[in-house]
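Example record used in the benchmark description.
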Amino acid sequence: MKTRNHKHYPRCTVDFPLEFTPEETASLVDQINTLLKSTYLLGLSKDIEGTFQSLFDIAEEISGADCFAYIAGTQDSDEFEIVSSRHVAIASSDESIFPLPALIARQFDKAVLLDSESNPLFQSICNSWSCKSLLAFPLRNDRNFIGALVFGKERTHPFSVPQVKMLWFLSMHAENRLLQGEAVKTLSFYSFIDPLTHLHNRRYFDDQLEKEIFRSRRNGKPFSLLMLDMDGFKAYNDRFLHIAGDVVLQEYAAILREAVREVDTVARLGGDEFVVILEESQAEGARDLATRLLDRLGKHLLPGIENARTERLSASIGISTFPSDSFDKQDLVQKADRALYMAKTQGGGRVCLYHEIAELLTVKPTASDLPIHKIYEAARSVVDMDKFLEILLFTAMQGLSAGRGSIVVRDPEGNHILRTAIGFTNGEKGFTRSGPISQGTVTSWVLEHGKPLVVSNPGDMPIQKQMKKNGYQSDSFLSLPLIHEGQRIGAIHLTNRKDKKPFTQEDVTAFAPIAGEIASVLQQGLTFRETVKLFSASILHSLSNAMELRFSFLSGHSSRVADLAFRVGRRLGIGDKELNVIRTAAGLHDIGLIGIPGSLLFKKHRLSEKEMDVVRKHAFLGSKLLEGIPGMEETRRIILEHHEFFNGSGYPFGLQGEEISKGARILSVAEYYDSITSERPHRGGLRSEEAVQILRTNMGTLFESDVCSAFLEEIQTL
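Model output (structure tokens):
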């Protein structure tokens, strides 16, 4: 914000000494104590904004001021910035006048009092603040002007002398806090820098990787991670000692900095290991950059080498990409490291991409390592049925917060075969091993009766003795029979809820579809990839239904939205094939909520912006669940975009107009209408006519006009 350089002002400086006499000290002791306490509180503030908001609280208490602002500036520039303020509103027409109190305080280099009542020449300045009098204190770093504190009063009488003195005292503390902030910034900068190479260090890398993952989740754009290790560095270090090794590391770091973009992050993890975060980069793009980097390194001779320096710099590089290789921070780093290891074992001086060597790696993640949104991604990487069953079991465990689970199958001879188990210790394997089905066990009861068994306190049951004998302990458990076409072929057991709550009949109802899908897979004996084609859609619908049963306030929401979206699409003349895609997407549009904490969805108060950011991830998670399923590409897109608004104010990408798929534009209206007319834990639902009025108001802004019109016409027929 720029202002004119006013050189002449009427008398406005505070011309009495800004210090306390003994008499004033005695009369103001309480206020001074308040300030002393405030000094401590200001020192505890973690950021500048928090500091000044605390300062404004104190200033209001001791002076009765009505508005406050910290205006930053410099000694020689007429540009000022309002860093923090309270009860201050500025019109664009007043922008050139508004910072004048700070400018005047800088020119006089002392406190200034601008009172419109005593001097009409200050009226325009005071009016821009909606005040009658203004008091400004210059702030300095050493002797350099860094800004001003401005206090305003709406009343016609100015600040009293004691009030001016107290506010001056407060401004000194603000000045000290700003100086402390600069010192902390400097220290913080160096705490993130590797002292040898002047690259970023591991601490900075960890922090930046978290930010990049969050950014990528919000905008849907991938990024790649390069992990680099120098070839032959240890031998070189041993031969020429650490001084020469340090020179090599510095040259290596300089080449890395030159090879990447300014937006990319380069860090030294330790020793001769480096890492690069490539923003908005697919795996192939990362490979191209890594190849060019190896070429650059090969043109540099190692310093200190004998025989005319014939040996050249070389490196091995491993690459992983978010989110295709992993959705988890630690796992992403580990996969880049595995790719690096493979590059090393192949002789060094080469690039390896994790997804190209994944099948060669013997290390396989367990189901307990897989977050809910990675279920299908992990499932597609395996071909055996047992692994698929493990993933289905894990899905059920995640949905019910179960700590342990198992799937057993009955063979024609009456034995039970343990197909998969999660969460058991070695001492409990006796309970889960395969063998004849013993009478009095949970499995035998479920298979005999063909119905679920829910036990809140197993200690009172006869089978508890058998469970303890096998070293198995349980707080409560839920067992569901696996039935296919009337045949009882096995059972699924879920035990030990992490939230310490007992299992309920509601849980049985919610997750019975999962048991049905497991039974189908087992009975038909399909290979995994065939299973994906035949059952993935039904599993997703089962999960969607289970999610709605779990979150009762969503009951029927997806089916209602699907019906509305189908009707609107038909009215718009959309073909049958596309209509079916829209209806499928509408039925699954909220499936990503299965990966959102239930505590947020059941919260009875309006969510904070930070909490809303978590909930907004459901569109992305829902799309990820469908990734790789044949024929689901357009469905995925609609689910991903169903919270985008026509004017670009939606999420997750802020798309606008025809950037949003037609199906998503239709689903957006249907979903919005049903949501606002339905009750939620934190609010009641609107009447239909109220919702219709909101849609009319937002036609052409939040919603496409022809889609919204078609919806309003269709709603009249219901």
